[in-house]
């Protein structure tokens, strides 16, 4: 699973991306236009990894981030919908 989110407001211009690969997720984040920073985290199971990834995604939506779609539109959603 891979999700790319952005938060563009009068006060912020940030991106956040998560890529889940088995028991590992990789998060890339930063200001739009920068290289960004990378964090990697490993879990004991794929289920736990996915659960934590979904929790992070939900927290980003609550902070005003929205998902970047392939058709260049934007979609703000919740974990319980459209996944």
UniProtKB/TrEMBL annotation:
<dbReference type="InterPro" id="IPR008893">
    <property type="entry name" value="WGR_domain"/>
</dbReference>
<dbReference type="InterPro" id="IPR049809">
    <property type="entry name" value="YehF/YfeS-like_WGR"/>
</dbReference>
<protein>
    <submittedName>
        <fullName>Molybdate metabolism regulator</fullName>
    </submittedName>
</protein>
<dbReference type="InterPro" id="IPR050458">
    <property type="entry name" value="LolB"/>
</dbReference>
<feature type="domain" description="WGR">
    <location>
        <begin position="1"/>
        <end position="80"/>
    </location>
</feature>
<dbReference type="InterPro" id="IPR036930">
    <property type="entry name" value="WGR_dom_sf"/>
</dbReference>
<dbReference type="Pfam" id="PF05406">
    <property type="entry name" value="WGR"/>
</dbReference>
